[in-house]
Design goal:
By secondary structure, the protein is α+β, with helices and mostly antiparallel strands. It is built from 3 helices and 4 strands; from the N terminus they run αββαβαβ.
């Protein structure tokens, strides 16, 4: 970030990161998390990724975390996307893992992406 963000944008980012990290710790069984925030004068982009177990997005969830993250982003004209991959269900392996199996394992996890517009300061004439 090359410049301070407006307070409302900062609060929204903070809450989304907070909820995202909470979900990872509670559900993902991840060993690696990557958080990236970049901005331009017009937009700030957040990416939060893990290598955890992933989940079925279509499955009914009991919490409101994902929906509240989406609502926060969309309330100021932003976008929210979530992609997740689960490891394929296979029989237990007795042989050592091959490179292909390691690649499959690395391909699981969840990626959350949020883009928020940065409002232009009011110009006084």
């Amino acid at each position: 970030l090359n410049h301070p963000l407006p307070k409302n944008v900062s609060v929204i980012l903070y809450r989304i990161v907070q909820e995202g990290l909470t979900n990872i710790v509670k559900h993902a069984q991840a060993s690696h998390i990557q958080l990236q925030i970049v901005s331009s004068p017009a937009i700030v982009a957040l990416t939060l990724e893990d290598n955890g177990t992933g989940f079925d997005i279509g499955q009914a969830r009991t919490g409101f975390g994902l929906q509240s993250m989406r609502d926060r982003a969309e309330a100021i004209g932003g976008t929210f996307s979530l992609t997740t991959k689960t490891a394929p269900q296979t029989a237990p392996q007795t042989a050592p893992q091959t490179a292909a199996q390691e690649t499959t394992d690395a391909a699981q996890g969840t990626r959350l992406q949020v883009n928020l517009p940065i409002p232009k300061p009011l110009q006084h004439v």
